Amino acid sequence: MGLVEHAIEFRDRFIICLVAVVLAMVAGFFLTGPALDIIRQPIETLQQARGSKVSINFSNVTTAFDLRMQMALTLGIVIASPVWLYQLWMFLMPGLKKNERRYALGFLGAAIPLFLGGVVVGFWVMPRIVEVMTGFAPVEDTVFYDAKTYYSFVLTLCIAVGVAFVVPVILVMLNFAGVLAGRTILRGWRVAVVASAFFAALATPAADVLSMFLLMLPMVALYFIAGGIARLNDRRREKRIAKQDAELEAELSSGTATPIAGE
């Protein structure tokens, strides 16, 4: 396809993703109450340790509504993840043959659990980050967290880690499509480690090294697993090609091969 065709396809798939997220956002709005209770748990734990000197504050009349809408959007992105992950895959791989479209099912089967798993990992690390950062405030003082700022931090962390967990699946699918060799993936391990460390450092406070490593290690592990799967697929492909070449050579030597036009 030309540049214009790619732009049209991107527009169409973006519209599908947007509609899916908006519809999921409506459902997500009704889940904001339970989600708020879950995200508030680290603050309640700190309140038990520090008394009532830690609290979440709604500093504006419209803050509560704005926060609900923000959370509904985030939940909508999570709920609609099967749709936009599929659209992303089909946009990246427009030239697949019909028999190769089954890779899309494999992509979704791996990407969706990893995305949701990344969201869970981000949420699992979040209380540790909140605890460490709150610990810098003197016990005698009261810590007021702006509601929108606090929830934005939690939701951004969870979504970012979820997306990061999907990257290795994209690498594997590019390998299965014949675009990227497994050897190339494994050779770039140094860049992957540095990129994972950089991402983990941005997602976690500089003072919380433990949380940084807790995020970094599964990302690096997933990268090497992706490289290993891609390398195994390359070997399988090489064996299949070698077998086909051997069969073709045997046919040529026995004179049973179909002559090629022009020879």
Automatic annotation (TrEMBL):
Domain of life: Bacteria
GO CC terms of this entry: TAT protein transport complex
BP-aspect Gene Ontology terms: intracellular protein transmembrane transport; protein transport by the Tat complex
Subcellular location: Cell membrane; Membrane
Claim: Nucleotide-binding is one of the keywords in the record: no
Keywords: Cell membrane, Membrane, Protein transport, Translocation, Transmembrane, Transmembrane helix, Transport
GO molecular function: proton motive force dependent protein transmembrane transporter activity
Residues annotated as transmembrane: 12-31, 71-92, 104-130, 150-176, 188-207, 213-233
Main localization, broad class: membrane
Annotated InterPro entries: TatC
Pfam families reported in the protein's UniProt record: TatC
Role, per record: Part of the twin-arginine translocation (Tat) system that transports large folded proteins containing a characteristic twin-arginine motif in their signal peptide across membranes. Together with TatB, TatC is part of a receptor directly interacting with Tat signal peptides.
HAMAP family listed in its UniProt record: TatC
Family: Belongs to the TatC family.
Complex and partners: The Tat system comprises two distinct complexes: a TatABC complex, containing multiple copies of TatA, TatB and TatC subunits, and a separate TatA complex, containing only TatA subunits. Substrates initially bind to the TatABC complex, which probably triggers association of the separate TatA complex to form the active translocon.
PANTHER family: SEC-INDEPENDENT PROTEIN TRANSLOCASE PROTEIN TATC (PTHR30371), SEC-INDEPENDENT PROTEIN TRANSLOCASE PROTEIN TATC, CHLOROPLASTIC-RELATED (PTHR30371:SF0)
Name by which UniProt lists this protein: Sec-independent protein translocase protein TatC
Lineage of origin: Bacteria, Bacillati, Actinomycetota, Actinomycetes, Micrococcales
